[in-house]
């Protein structure tokens, strides 16, 4: 799927985790390109502050991504607004800063629930809408930590690796449907991700670190992401220096994506289902 930036004009982009950081920067970028924006996150006041900076029509749908009933209600509202959702950005998430040996199991459960299970639930809720229209884009914000193992982030890596796996399999299943699936793998971006990260006992870290503070600006990250979506990239590495090298070394080859899609085109899914 190869598209130009102008193709966002008149479309609706729904972004979770939109109150700050990459999510807010994506909202501003897509709004400037003519998209209507649906903003979701837990804090309505902060979402409104983002909405006030946008150039296009905006719908605010605040909810906690782990509240499935609230997510389903928001999905209904988003899909009934104008002509429905054209771009869904699964960006909500929480990170970690703790060694595995010290980390409570509840931290693993919480991060996997927020960063993986809730993202899958939201994507699944939108599937009937997307497949019914035969068009649309899923954008899953994973991480370079979703491609390699990063110390002090065992739970985060587990969740983000899982999100890549779900997205890649979903892309293959939808490869004949007109729906694109993009995986975004940011490295260090100057957001509150480290400050909000969970420590070993589940409490928020409360402070950032120099790697994050000196990272890529959210606006630059958003531009790389939007350019990647526009050009049809299935995996978008958003990183500099060594982190970029890590991501590129673990990038899934485009030829492999093509091979899996071809298997679907050749009837793989129908054959397996027919064997049940």
Report how far apart the termini are: 33 Å
The H/E string reads EHEHEHEHEHEHHEHHH
Coarse morphology:
globular
Count of DSSP-assigned helices: 10
- What's the CATH architecture name? 3-Layer(aba) Sandwich
CATH-defined topology = Rossmann fold
Rg computed from alpha carbons, rounded to a whole number of angstroms: 18 Å
| Total discrete domains | 1
Low-confidence stretches: 1-6
β-strand percent reads: 5-15%
CATH class: Alpha Beta
Q: Helical content, roughly?
A: 40-55%
Could you state the CATH homologous superfamily? NAD(P)-binding Rossmann-like Domain
Query: How would you classify the helix and strand content by structural class?
Result: alpha/beta
Report the biggest beta sheet as strand number plus sense, adding barrel if it closes. 7 strands, parallel
Number of strands: 7
Mean pLDDT: 95
Strands side by side in the biggest sheet: 3-2-1-4-5-6-7
Q: What's the short story on this structure?
A:
The chain is α/β, with parallel strands linked by helices. The chain has ten helices and seven strands.
3D structure, described in words:
- This protein has 276 residues and is of the alpha/beta class.
- It has a single domain, classed as NAD(P)-binding Rossmann-like Domain (Rossmann fold, 3-Layer(aba) Sandwich), CATH 3.40.50.720.
- It is 46% helix and 12% strand.
- The protein has ten helices and seven strands.
- The chain has helices spanning 21-32, 44-51, 68-80, 105-133, 154-173, 210-213, 218-230, 241-249, 254-265, 268-274; strands spanning 12-15, 36-39, 58-60, 87-90, 136-141, 179-186, 235-238.
- The chain has a seven-stranded parallel sheet with strand order 3-2-1-4-5-6-7, with helices on both faces.
- Helix 5 (154-173) links the parallel strand 5 and strand 6 (179-186).
- The protein is globular and about 50 Å long.
- The two termini are 33 Å apart.
- The model is unreliable at 1-6 (pLDDT under 50).
């Amino acid at each position: 799927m190869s598209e130009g930036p102008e193709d966002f004009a008149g479309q609706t982009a729904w972004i979770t985790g939109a109150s700050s950081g990459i999510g807010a920067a994506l909202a501003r970028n897509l709004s400037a390109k003519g998209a209507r924006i649906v903003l979701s996150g837990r804090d309505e006041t902060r979402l409104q502050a983002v909405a006030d900076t946008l150039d296009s029509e905006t719908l605010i749908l605040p909810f906690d991504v782990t509240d499935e009933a609230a997510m389903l209600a928001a999905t209904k509202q988003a899909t009934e607004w104008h002509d429905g959702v054209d771009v869904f950005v699964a960006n909500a998430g929480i990170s970690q800063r703790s060694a595995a040996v010290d980390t409570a199991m509840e931290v693993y459960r919480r991060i996997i629930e927020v960063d993986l299970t809730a993202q899958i639930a939201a994507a699944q809720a939108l599937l009937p809408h997307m497949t019914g229209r035969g068009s649309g884009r899923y954008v899953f914000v994973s991480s370079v930590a979703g491609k390699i193992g990063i110390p002090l982030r065992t739970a985060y890596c587990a969740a983000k690796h899982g999100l890549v796996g779900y997205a890649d399999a979903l892309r293959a299943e939808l490869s004949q449907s007109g729906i694109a699936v993009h995986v975004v793998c940011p490295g260090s971006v100057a957001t509150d991700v480290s400050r909000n990260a969970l420590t070993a006992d589940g409490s928020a870290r409360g402070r950032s670190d120099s790697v994050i503070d000196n990272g890529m600006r959210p606006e630059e990250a958003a531009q790389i992401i939007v350019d990647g979506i526009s050009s049809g990239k299935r995996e978008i590495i958003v990183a500099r220096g060594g982190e970029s090298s890590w991501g590129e070394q673990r990038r899934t080859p485009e030829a492999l994506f093509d091979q899996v899609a071809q298997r679907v085109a050749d009837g793989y899914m129908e054959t397996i289902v027919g064997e049940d």
